[in-house]
Amino acid sequence: MHTETIEIGDTIVRVSGAGKPLVFVHGFTTTAEFWRGQVEAFSSRYKVIRINLPGHGVSPRPAGRSYTIDAFANDVLEVFRKLDIRQAVLVGLSMGGTIAQNFTLAHPERVQALVLVGATPHGLGEDVNVDNVLKAIDDLGVVQASQNVIDRSFGSAASQELLNFARQEVARTPDFVAREAIASLNASDSRSRLGDIRVPTLVVVGNEDIITPPAESVILAEGIPDSRLEVVENAGHFPMLEQPHKFNEMLAAFLRACEDPVSQASGQGLSQHAI
């Protein structure tokens, strides 16, 4: 599958396939490559757009800009503008889920549907709260601190190859980017505005996720009116990497439901699933 690399401002974007736009946003210190398991599965029907946030992975990391949730949401908007995306399905992982929530609230006309993976309405789980992360960066350096989080992020079925891949990817994010991003993520709070998200929403979480525990996904699904909650068994914080087949089936079913006006009108396929 051919993938085009495009530089938009401080953002490197990977574009594969053709069709309706499916935009993926990764999480804190991770990269666009965390969506590698979705490229082939969806690029035959969709234009798969994987955003590599500024300061992460191969994207530029200029010292004079902001690395906050609001700044990242503006970067996503710039991608929409430069690629002439009028409306897309927006998929966000972890911090990317917070960015996606903020983007949807600020630009509802741009979002056809929303997918939140390992996300929360406020910060991250206690295992990676801002004080713990900043102390680990101070004590160990940003690379080791990020890799320690990765070591706790996967479920028990994850392979060593997958763990090694993730450890290598998160080592790319520099200290000053990680510090500003985690502080902004910790301060972000959409709990009082979840009811304002008025697009079909799929909430996905791994049953072994300790970074953003399943209870946080329940809050999202209960707060967003037109939402569906799916739990991926034998997965931690990265179900799209750990169980790509299961995740892709869930996402494909959701996309089909969003494209079927009868299902949307009746709510079939979009109701909440309890854990």
Automatic annotation (TrEMBL):
It comes from the Bacteria. InterPro entries: AB_hydrolase_1, AB_hydrolase_fold, AB_hydrolase_sf. Pfam families: Abhydrolase_1. SUPFAM superfamilies: alpha/beta-Hydrolases (SSF53474). Gene3D superfamilies: alpha/beta hydrolase. This is Carboxylesterase.
